[in-house]
Specification:
10-stranded mixed beta sheet; about 35% helix; single chain
Length: about 450
């Protein structure tokens, strides 16, 4: 019998947005059309198979769903449209265009998910993605094929930082994935990308807070699959921006609870690490092709870095950027791949200037503590305080845009305004070449 004509009507249970129906010959992750008693239709996805009972996550939710519903399985998993024509377009988490643009129904579609990249096809990261954000480019370089989160808390301008990086990064294509965004945030990203002239090389997948939970789970897979194809088939350097991965993890938890699975730490399912790793491991520098770099936002409830989502994320990713009090924290942030590019594809003084600036800024924070406790300050402490003020104003504001070499030159100039050459404790050859030039 033709599968398209088969209707399954043996509904076992409806729990929240989960519909359970008896069926055979169905694959995990397959799509289905759920037709309610009033002829209204919705897509659903198979999320569990158990002894002839198929559990479907209904995209439109379980509200009003009847046990008289009919289910037709499509025989394939979720697919996403992929062609050069999707550049500049905005899609929902279901893959349906959201922007009212030209019809894409005749464009080719590809299944999402699949295995991660064969290690033999990966090459050692060796190129830098310039973001023009000094606290990233100078102190924690973003390297092609890196996977790195921005750890932050509610109320911080992490979306503004993410948008700025997307605008300024020297990537060929930007793939944006919004997870549980309020409308204001969605409008901010779309209007910003459009006004800054990068929407034409951007693809957006957006799940708003009012959209179905299951679409939230599909957004990262759609974004990463499209990024993978652009990198492999077109040889593009692709930067994937995802916000907020904590909303993704919360969606996993909500569905797990509806499925009556035994929760682990703080209500999250025991496979949280695996679910996150399957997405992050899509970052890759492909042999003979392009690359996929992943930059995400992970909010920390209660500013708790031991929360299951940031805690598991830290074991998967190659460092993190801490955004606190509106600035990128130079002490908590780390890029584990920066040594692959510093001094190799960047200027010879990069490593020395990075270490020296952070060393003096740490000294400035200590001098601030001494000043707050009314201790006597030495002349060198006064220099450190001056340096700390200049460092914060010239480098830490996330709104500052500056090419890397200009930032390095400004670093030398800042040092020259505060210290003598013998106080730097740097390589003499670099001091003679760059510090003397900054003084003059």
């Amino acid at each position: 019998m033709i599968p398209d004509l088969v209707r399954h009507t043996s509904v076992v249970a409806i729990v929240g947005d989960i519909l359970k129906v008896r069926a055979t010959g169905v694959g995990f992750g397959d799509l289905a059309v759920v037709e309610n008693w009033d002829r209204r239709r919705s897509l659903g996805q198979v999320i569990e198979l158990e002894r002839g009972v198929v559990s479907l996550q209904v995209f439109s939710g379980g509200k009003g769903l009847s046990t008289q519903a009919k289910v037709r399985f499509l025989g394939h998993p979720t697919q996403v449209t992929y062609s050069p024509n999707i550049l500049g377009r905005v899609f929902r988490g279901s893959g349906i265009p959201l922007d009212g643009g030209p019809d894409l129904s005749n464009e080719p579609s590809i299944p999402i998910g699949g295995p991660s990249v064969n290690p033999k096809m990966r090459i050692v990261p060796k190129n830098m993605i310039h973001t023009k954000v000094p606290m990233i480019d100078v102190f924690n370089c973003l390297v092609e094929s890196q996977k790195i989160p921005i750890f932050s808390v509610a109320g911080e301008p992490y979306n503004q930082l993410l948008a700025r990086i997307g605008i300024q990064a020297d990537a060929d294509i930007i793939i944006f994935g919004g997870l549980g965004l309020i409308f204001d945030d969605y409008h901010f990203f779309r209007s910003t990308f459009e006004s800054e002239g990068i929407l034409g090389r951007t693809v957006m997948f957006v799940n708003q807070a009012s959209d179905p939970i299951v679409e939230r789970l599909l957004v990262p897979d759609m974004a990463l699959k499209v990024a993978e194809r652009f990198a492999v088939e077109e040889g593009k350097r692709v930067l994937v921006l995802l916000t907020d991965m904590t909303a993704y993890a919360d969606a996993l938890k909500e569905i797990g609870i509806a499925m009556e699975r035994v929760p682990s730490n703080r209500g999250y399912m025991g496979d949280l690490y695996t679910q996150l790793a399957q997405r992050y491991e899509r970052a890759c520098d492909y042999k003979g092709a392009g690359s996929v770099t992943i930059l995400t936002v992970t909010t920390m409830p209660g500013d708790d870095v031991t929360h299951p989502v940031p805690d598991n994320t830290g074991y998967i990713t190659e460092g993190q950027l801490y955004l606190h009090n509106g600035v990128i924290d130079p002490f908590g942030s780390l890029s584990r791949l920066k040594q692959q590019v510093i001094g190799k594809v960047t200027r010879e003084d990069h490593s020395q200037i990075m270490n020296t600036m952070i060393r003096f800024y740490a000294g400035a924070k200590e001098a601030e503590k001494k000043q707050a406790m009314a201790f006597d300050l030495s002349p060198f402490d006064q220099k450190l305080l001056k340096f700390g003020d200049l460092f914060a104003k010239r480098f830490m504001d996330i709104r500052i845009a500056m090419p890397l070499n200009d930032a390095l030159d400004l670093s030398w100039q800042t040092l020259a305004e505060c210290f003598q050459a013998e106080e730097l404790l740097m390589k003499q050859a670099l001091v003679e070449k760059y510090f003397k030039q900054a003084e003059s």
